[in-house]
Each structure stands twice: as C-alpha cells, then as structure tokens.
Amino acid sequence: MNLLVTLALVFCLAAALVHFASIALVTFRARRLRSAEAAPHGRPPISILRPVRGLEHAIERTLGSGFALDYPDYEIVFCVASASDPVVPLIRRLMAVHPHVQARLLVGDERISINPKLNNLAKGWDAAAHRWIVMADSNVLMPADYLDRMLERWDGTTGLVCSPPLGSEPDNLGAELECAYLNTYQARWQLAADAVGQGFAQGKSMLWRRENLDRHGGIAALAADPAEDAAATKAIRANGQRVRLVRQPFAQPLGAREIGTIWQRQLRWARLRRVTFPALFCLELALGGLLPIGLTLWLGLAGELPLWIAPALAIAWYGAEALMARSLGWHCGRSSPFAWILRDLTMPALWIAAVCGSGFEWRGNQMNVKTDSLLAAEGD
Fold first, then answer.
1. Which of 92, 115, 130, 280 has the maximum number of C-beta atoms within 10 A of its C-beta?
2. Residue 186 has what DSSP assignment?
3. Virtual CA dihedral for 291, 295, 298, 299, nearest 10 degrees?
C-alpha cells in the first residue's frame, strides 16, 4: 500500500469519525439540556432590539411573534435606518394592534462601523431601558418561551447567549439548499462547539447584560470586526467569560430562495470567517461528504477497498444527518438529502471563492473584509 493510498484511508476514516461524532454530540447535548434544570436567573426585565429593513418573507409573522411572548416584563425597540422604509407602516400597525406590549420605533442611521446592521442597532442600544438586552434579527420567529430559553443557558460563567439560525418552511430547491447549510451543517458545528465549551456568537439572536459590552466601550466595540458576532465572541472571551448557545435554535421561515442569492450569502459569511477566525476557516475545506465519499469511491475503483464501501458510507453519512434533524425537530423533507449532497458539492468551490476574493455586498453596501471599509469590492 503506497503512501497516497494510506493518507486517503486515514483522511476518510478521520472525516467519518468527526462527522458522526459531531452528530452524536449535538443530539446528546439536546437531550442532556432538555432534562437539566434551568440556571437560577429569575425573569428580569429585558429590552429586545430588532433591526429592520425592507419587507422580507414572513416579516409580519416574525415581527408579530415578538408581541406574543410569555414573559412578564419586556420592551421591543424596532430600529429602522430610514423613515421611508416600506416596513415602517407594518411596524406601526403591529404596535397599534398590541398596545399591551411596550414597543417603540427608532429611526436613524448612526455610522459607527462598516456593518449596516450595527449602525442601525446603535440607537436602540443607547435607548434600551433595561440591563438585559436581546439583539434579534427581523427574520427570527420567536416562540412564546423565547426569552426563557435564552435565559436558561445563563450561569455565573456566561457573558453572552446566542442562537444560530435554523431554516424552516422552505418552498423551493434554493431554500432547501439554505436549510442544508444552516441546519445540519452550520448549526450542527456551532452546537457541537458549544457542547465542548467553545461556543461562539451568532448575530441572529444575542442576549447581553449591558455591562459585559459597555466595559469594552459599548455597542461600538462590535465594530472591531466586519461581523458583529465575531467581535462579540472576542469581547466576551476577553472578559474571561463564555458564549453559550440555546438548547434549541429558533426558526427562520425561508419561503422561496434563489440559488444565486444563497451562494452570495454563503460567500459573504465564508469571507468573513476567513478574516475573523482563519484557523477554523482552513479546516472547512475538509468538511462535508464530498471528499471522504469521493476518495472512498476512488479507492474502491482502484481495488484498494471493496467497492460497496463508498455507497455504504454515503448512505450512513446522510442518514445520520436525517436522524439528527428528525430527532431535534429540524426540517427534514423528501428533498433534504438532495440539498445536502448539493451543499457538499458546492462547499469546495465556496471555500476557494472565499480565499480568492475579499469583497461582497451587504444590504446594498459594497464591503471589503481586507480594508474593513465601505469601499468598492475587489474585482471579483
């Protein structure tokens, strides 16, 4: 057996062990936390900041869900950059229909960073009435126990509680592909990292205690990186505290999505990961089923392994994803296996594209992860 064959076998074995171990870890984590008692935190007053721009899919349902929380004392602070934004009448209507919930709409765009969402949130952070603050994206669907589920993960070592996005209700192949990236790939790895004490922030839902960020200079400290969640992770770890993730992530209704839009979003996130956590980004090229299943097939065709091992590994690989999704109550439909395969086929190309360029468009802004400015992106 030559060295190349040996290396291929070792890689395939290591990749399979890591894949199945991460799935087992996430599944066990959910069961363990479900049976554990919540940390003693009480139910303190909380300010929910929701940055909003435009009329996204299911926006009335996602924003409206914040008015139906089973929680005694909270306020909602909607943040919009422009008074002419088409979402403004919807927000005003929701506030009028739910007068029993304290809610405000703040308009303005304070340029504290290259991050348009952070600029939109700055006024909300300053205006928040409470010590506990949640930043929640407009497309997060909040269940009635949303705030309790955030608080239950807080203990004496915690500086921030987050939730990765969990794709739901896909209406076409593009949305199925986004589910494949968000759920059994990205959310799985984030929850697995949390299970071993290495949780990192995700900007979809973040629960703060004001002082944990104010000691770094307030919300402007999140401008230290192009992505506010990367800056949040570094700030909390600098405090000697931990970022924890919720037991069960919150859903994001997807509807129909275009493949090109999914690619651009994933490329933006990949380029941000490349500059914010470069060591972890380098490992991403080895993740996914394409390389281990492809190498196993090559070894089978070369006579180094029985040929049946490649299809058996593929069935086990994606079957484990399906079992995890179903056991956790995540989306898993007839098209999901095809979306998982398409995701793994595109991952190497996505990684290479992330390495070969630094520019991307976000909310109409041309941004560059190298220069950290609102400059035109590099020619890519």
1. 115
2. I
3. -170
